[in-house]
Structures are given as structure tokens and as C-alpha cells.
Amino acid sequence: MQRWVHSQGWTTLHDAQERAIAPILAGDTDVVIAAATAAGKTEAAFLPICSVLAAELAPASEVNPWTAHDPWAEPTPVAASGVQVLYVSPLKALINDQYNRLEEICETADIAVHRWHGDVSGSAKQDVLRNPTGVLLITPESLEAMFVIRGTKVPALFAGLRYVVVDEMHSFLATARGAQLQSLLHRIELAIRRRCPRIGLSATIGDMNDAAAFLRPGDAGNVTQISSASDGRELRLQLRGYVAAPPAPNAGEEDDTPGEKVAIANHLF
User: Three-state DSSP class for 69?
Assistant: First the structure.
């Protein structure tokens, strides 16, 4: 993932991206990331997530086949298969946009990315069911339909779940759709019989405590809050002045528009 960052020509990370690394890598806490639009919230979540998944996929160091096996050692548990990251978005269009963006990031770590909503073909969904892995991008409604239609497959589908990412979280706050999403996330944890770290991505919001309470009802105090007002972009200002002038003469036409307004209009055009 460091190589991916360097390949983008980045010389530094945004504030929210920097602060999100430690808690997401730890994987033992929920995280709310609130920052301005285009401040890199997606990368703030997925760079450390992909780093965790890439470390798990990395080949083990070379071992001596004659001495490596200890017959008296405790058996190593087999990692659970299944979708590793569940990304929930309020809009299909946003899923389509993020799909292309995440594919570029995840390709570096050899992590598969899948879409699941009403416009995705049945064959693509069957591929996910046959080989659930990587990142699954889905809407709350499609996730609800999955429980209704394929409820018995949900535990196996999400057996390997490591993170849940909720994008545009501010759009769910204090809404019926938000209550539905809370129910869905709770049901997933019931299905896999364990708690899974949740990461909420949001535009700048007034009360971060409300966002934390939404993300993890009943345990908001243990949600790591990352709020950044900086979007990392340089502010550029151009100041121009216009001198009052009489209307410009127009052959054969009567035009009483003051000359300075014509100059302003030409500049804007």
C-alpha cells in the first residue's frame, strides 16, 4: 500500500488519513471519520484496511520442510472464507463510482472488489456467492433482500468479515433508512456470532457523539472519532477590478449596458 501511495505522487497524507491509520490497523474499535468532500475519506479507510488484508495474504517466509512441522503443536486455525469488507452506500451511483476507485487501490494488494445492487447482473452475484471474498459494495435495500432471499447463506457469506464501512453516514442519521441499516448491521453480527469493527465515513457533521451513537448503539463511548476540517486543497484567489465606463458603441444596435458590466460578462464567459 505504501507503493500505491508513492505511485500516486503523494508526498503526504491528509490529516484524517494520517489519524485513521492506527485505530483501523488495530481492528479493535469502531471509527467515525468526518471530513470535507474530496478530503480522501475513502482512502483514509481503505489504505489501512487493504494493508491488513494484504498482510494476511502475504506468503509466509521460507521454512525448512523437515523441521517446520511440530506434531505436538496446537493446530493452526484455518482462516474463515467469505467477504472480508462490507461497504454499505446509500446510492447505486456512488457504488459504481467507488467500485472503479476501490478496484485501483485493491488491485495492488490482489483483493477482489464486487458490486451488489439492482443493476448488477445475476451472473456477477452468483460469482460472489460461489467465491465470497474481498470487498462487497452494496446498498441497504440489497442487503435486506439478501437476508430475505438468501438468509441461510449469510453466515457463510460473511464468515471472514473483518470490517464494515458505512459511506455517506450523515444521510442515514435520524432517518427510517438509518434505523434499517442499524438493524442490518446488528443481524450480520448475529449471523457471524462476533462483533466486527465498523467505520463510518461522513461529511463534516455538527455532533460527532450523535454519529458515534448511530454507528455503535449502546457503546458510543468506545468509538474513535476523527474530525477534520481540512480538505488538503490549496485555496487560490484572484482579485480583479473594473473601472466604470460608458456603454460600448454597437453599430446599428442600441445598448445601454455600462461598459464595466460588459467587461465583467466577457471575463466570466
Answer: coil
Question: Residue 16, Cβ neighbours under 10 Å: how many?
Answer: 25
Q: CA torsion, points 187, 90, 114, 18, in degrees to nearest 10?
A: -90
Amino acid identity at 3: R
Give CA 29 to chain center in angstroms: 17
Taking residue 215's Cβ as centre, other Cβ atoms within 10 Å add up to: 26
Sign, CA torsion 181/90/157/118 = positive
**The three three-digit cell numbers of residue 64, written as one number:** 525448512
pLDDT string in tens for the chain (269-residue length): 888 999 999 998 988 999 999 999 999 999 999 988 778 899 999 999 999 999 887 655 555 666 666 666 665 544 557 999 999 999 999 999 999 999 999 988 889 999 999 888 989 999 999 989 999 999 999 999 999 999 999 999 999 999 999 999 999 999 999 999 999 999 999 999 999 999 999 987 888 999 999 999 999 999 999 998 665 556 677 888 999 988 877 655 667 788 889 889 988 88
Query: Is there a contact between 212 and 17 (Cβ–Cβ < 8 Å)?
Result: no
Question: Position of cell 463510518?
Answer: 200
Q: Is 238 left (phi over 0), alpha (psi -120 to 50) or beta?
A: beta
Rounded Cα gap, residues 21 and 13, in angstroms: 11
DSSP strands (E only) in the chain? 30-35, 85-88, 113-116, 135-138, 163-166, 198-202, 223-228
Helices and strands per DSSP (H, E), number in the chain: 10, 7
Q: 17 by DSSP, 3-state: which?
A: helix
CB 178 within 8 A of CB 172: yes
